[in-house]
Design brief:
Blueprint: H1 2-16, E1 24-31, E2 42-45, E3 51-53, E4 59-65, E5 68-75, E6 82-88, E7 93-99, H2 104-108, H3 110-114, E8 141-145, H4 146-151, E9 169-170, E10 180-182, E11 185-186, E12 188-191, E13 194-195, E14 210-217, E15 231-237, E16 245-253, E17 257-267, E18 274-284, E19 294-306, E20 311-324, E21 332-334, E22 355-369, E23 374-388, E24 390-394, E25 405-406, E26 408-412, E27 414-432, E28 435-453, E29 457-459, E30 462-465, E31 471-474, E32 476-477, H5 500-504, E33 508-524, E34 529-544, E35 547-565, E36 568-579, E37 594-607, E38 612-630, E39 636-657, E40 660-675, E41 692-703, E42 712-725, E43 737-738, E44 741-751, E45 755-762, E46 770-775, E47 785-790, E48 795-803
Parallel strand pairs: 1-7, 12-15
Antiparallel strand pairs: 1-4, 2-3, 2-5, 5-6, 8-14, 9-10, 10-11, 12-13, 14-15, 16-17, 16-48, 17-18, 18-19, 19-20, 20-22, 21-47, 22-23, 23-27, 24-26, 25-32, 26-29, 27-28, 28-33, 30-31, 33-34, 34-35, 35-36, 36-37, 37-38, 38-39, 39-40, 40-41, 41-42, 42-43, 42-44, 44-45, 45-48, 46-47
């Protein structure tokens, strides 16, 4: 791997050193009608294949242009397209300033014109703190736009979001939060650049409030260091744009699904200093499983106050309410294997009490720009959700017999999750001679607590009349289930008289952390070579179920990105993360953090002036200090284990030709144990992970641009996973694998400047699809039981939209 990195660097340096012909360039700044910097504006050099976008300061640049006359075309949704003539001279950089003008006509055509390129973006959101276009970042970062989310009619993170990024899959779990796997491990969840990950949380963000979702692959020291070295996803919520507009939608679909959304965007003051955004959503959603449902509503107001042209304050409040069937009702249990029960099978009963979740969050963001080159950001967040309800699971230790008899247990599950987060960071640019420095320096801190009451449980017992006419208990059998025979007076009643903290006892999990990060991106040879040097120092205290840990760790980051030409870059990256451990080894020494080292190489390219892009990468992640057990008559715990995950990834996204958008990806992942005290485990699969060896997805969408059928669109997409590995929590062996997974989905739609209608059909082939794992349920090591979740068969959604 080191030789490969050296070869890439040497080749890149050679390319960068090639002789230059006498050329010139153009530098410019684009502002909006109110004089503010216009970020992410598309800039095209007409009659050439060159294109770019403005940065956060509205700046853009074209280099290595032959002397002559050019026309620059500037376009941004909601503004008139601007064409500016410019003359380029040899050995000279022409500087221009451009201002966009609002256009009502452009606003009316926002759907037709905006749909051309918004499967692909050129820059990460400001919440990722990076000042660099995605093409130049030395890391694999993939962005799912709101257009993709709308075309696929995705409601929340539990649905088809993962199909749009290479190697990303969702593992089955409860129906209130997303358990997403990438590069062989579960990844963290961020919202607006802040780490909101908690046990069994957070509640999934509804897509009605989402602007984009960014998947950052591998460790990302520029965001946070404590966590698995596989990466994270960042949900970026909608913010005010200053353009007065709105959209309302109504959806109906299979299993009594009804949903409505409203998105309002505009100004609260005539001078444009006070802006607002309001997103509302209400949903009634049934299920293919009997007695199962998930009803939600959300209220998300956002206010931005532009103090002046350099300072802004944004306040965002989110309230999400969810009422769902009791947790665990989605699972199926069997002694024979997977797929032996119908899709609508359930362990639940029609008269069981629901689980309610109330989720509140507040984000405050302060931005101040000292100059065109330096910016300071402060962001504070408070998140809290309360859960009142219960969960269902087979009884312990014997819950399922080989004849299909299953003893159902109902447990209380009241919970509270609270997080207080803060971040302060400075970004800027400076020069030392011919070298440009892009600086990022910041402080992150947070305090999180989760508590739950699982202390009360009872059997869920059905009743019936025997041959003698006596009213007696009746066992539940998965192969001949009888529902509706659990009397209301036989349902468990849980004692909630004490405060939750008192009932939780030791079932409290939390952490407090603080960290400092400094990064310098050095740019050489007119920005063709970019060297990133960075480091983060983190202190973290954790507590879980009565066990405490206190750790600190320095994690370095080094990356290089080289522009082979204007549209192509190659990169190499070394980054590190760590996972704090609780407890001690067999010698009573505290466990040290597990460290994860990532080495990654890749190539990125923008095609046709940035209309579509490709990213290919290879990586190796080595986790050290993994806890392992020593075989023998005396149980011992040591921290000498090591695992290694390797993979190849490819992503393509954007507008291939006019009206034709494509998202396609492929990933190969392998994870194995490389060191362990038990020699028999070396070379075997890594336990406790759920991923697929091969994952490929595609979503192809075409919309007619002219003629009588203008606005008519067709889409088709698939998800294909081969070599699926199970979670394997309680299995007798880690060798059990799931069968391959293939799902075909489609869409037909029509839209004009105001109205739209879209019909999506999922699982067109009506495949019996599921995911799960072996699970010990009868307290007998000689037998293996299974648990899994079944997806719905062919189902549909139709959405009507109105824009105003």
């Amino acid at each position: 791997m080191k030789k490969i990195i050296l070869l890439v660097v040497m080749t890149a340096l050679s390319c960068a050193g090639m002789a230059q012909t006498a050329t010139g360039g153009v530098q410019g700044k684009v502002t909006t009608a109110d004089g503010k910097a216009a970020a992410d504006v598309t800039i095209l050099l007409k009659n050439t294949n060159k294109g770019t976008t403005t940065d956060d300061n509205g700046h853009f640049e074209f280099r290595k242009l032959n002397a002559g006359n050019y026309e620059i075309e500037i376009s941004l949704i909601g503004y008139e397209t601007l064409i500016q003539s410019v003359t380029v001279s040899a050995d000279h950089t022409e500087r221009i300033a451009l201002q966009l003008k609002l256009s009502d006509k452009e606003l009316e055509e926002v759907v037709i014109k905006g749909g051309q390129r918004n499967y692909k973006v050129s820059r990460p959101s400001s919440t990722l703190r990076l000042q660099t276009p995605l093409l130049e970042v030395p890391q694999n970062i993939q962005v799912i736009t709101s257009k993709v989310i709308a075309d696929q009619q995705i409601f929340d993170m539990l649905e088809g979001v993962t199909r749009n990024v290479s190697g990303v899959t969702r593992s089955e779990h409860w129906d209130n939060y997303a358990n997403i796997t990438m590069r062989g491990q579960q990844i963290g969840s961020f919202r607006n650049g802040m780490n909101v990950q908690m046990p069994w949380g957070p509640i999934t963000e509804d897509m009605s409030m989402v602007d984009r979702i960014e998947f950052v692959k591998g460790p990302a020291g520029f965001m946070l260091a404590n966590g698995e070295p596989t990466g994270f996803y960042n949900v970026v919520t909608k913010k005010p744009t200053g353009i007065t507009k709105g959209e309302a939608t109504f959806t109906m679909g299979s299993y009594d699904t009804y949903r409505s959304t409203l998105d309002l965007d505009g100004k609260l003051s005539e001078d444009g200093k006070l802006l607002y955004r309001l997103n509302l959503m209400g949903q009634l959603k049934g299920s293919h499983r009997d007695f199962d449902y998930n009803n939600r509503y959300s209220i998300v107001p956002v206010i931005t106050y532009n103090v002046d042209d350099k300072t802004s304050i944004t306040a965002e409040y989110t309230y999400q309410y969810m009422r769902m069937a009791l947790i665990g009702a989605a699972y199926v249990f069997s002694p024979k294997g997977y797929g032996d029960l119908p899709r609508n099978f359930t362990l639940a009963e029609p008269n069981l009490a629901p689980t309610d979740i109330k989720d509140h969050s507040i984000f405050l963001t302060f931005n101040h720009r000292f100059s065109d080159n330096w910016k300071f950001t402060t962001q504070l967040a408070y998140l809290k959700y309360n859960q009142t309800g219960s969960s269902q699971w087979p009884n312990y230790p014997v819950g399922l017999l080989q004849d299909g008899t299953l003893y159902r247990s109902i447990s209380i599950w009241d919970a509270e999750n609270e997080a207080k987060l803060g971040q302060f960071f400075l970004t800027g640019q400076a020069n030392t001679g011919a070298v440009q420095h892009r600086i990022l320096a910041g402080v992150d801190m947070g305090n999180k607590d989760y508590m739950a009451d699982w202390s009360q449980s009872a059997l869920l017992q059905g009743y019936g009349y025997d041959d003698n006419g006596d009213y007696v208990p009746v066992d539940f059998n998965i192969y001949s289930p009888v529902h509706g025979n659990v009397p209301g007076d036989k349902l468990p009643v849980f004692d909630r008289s004490l405060p939750l903290r008192a009932r939780a006892n030791a079932n409290i999990v939390g952490e407090s952390y603080s960290s400092i990060y400094i990064q310098d991106e050095l740019r050489f040879l007119r920005d063709r070579i970019r060297l990133t040097l960075a480091g983060r120092y983190t202190t973290i205290k954790q507590h879980a179920y009565g066990v405490y840990s206190d750790d600190n760790k320095f994690t370095p980051r080094a990356g290089i990105s080289v522009s082979v030409d204007k549209q192509t870059s190659v990169y190499g990256l070394y980054d590190q993360a760590f996972v704090p451990q609780q407890g001690s080894d067999s010698l009573n020494k505290p466990l040290v953090p597990v460290t994860g080292n990532n080495i990654e190489l890749g190539i990125k390219r923008d095609w046709l002036g940035g209309k579509w892009s490709t990213t290919a990468s290879v990586y190796r992640i080595i986790r050290n200090n993994v806890v392992s057990t020593v075989p023998g008559p005396v149980y011992k715990v040591v921290q000498t284990g090591q695992t290694q995950t390797e993979g190849i990834e490819f992503d393509l996204r954007g507008e291939i030709i006019r009206g034709l958008n494509l998202t396609a990806n492929y990933a190969y992942t392998t994870a194995k144990v490389t060191k362990d005290e038990d020699a028999g485990k070396i070379g075997g699969a890594v336990p406790g992970t759920g991923f697929a060896d091969h994952v490929t997805n595609a979503w192809l969408s075409y919309r007619l641009q002219n003629g009588k059928a203008k606005g008519l669109g067709l889409s088709l997409g698939y998800q294909w996973q081969l070599g699926r590995n199970t979670w394997d929590w309680g299995a007798n062996t880690i060798a059990n694998q799931l069968p391959d997974y293939f799902r075909l989905d489609g869409n037909i739609s029509w839209q004009d400047s105001k109205y739209s209608v879209a019909l999506n059909v999922n699982n067109i082939l009506n495949k019996y699809l599921f995911q799960g794992a072996p699970y010990e349920l009868d307290n007998n090591p000689a037998t293996t039981e299974y648990y899994y979740q079944i997806e719905p068969g062919t189902n549909f959604r139709i959405t009507f939209g109105y824009r105003f």
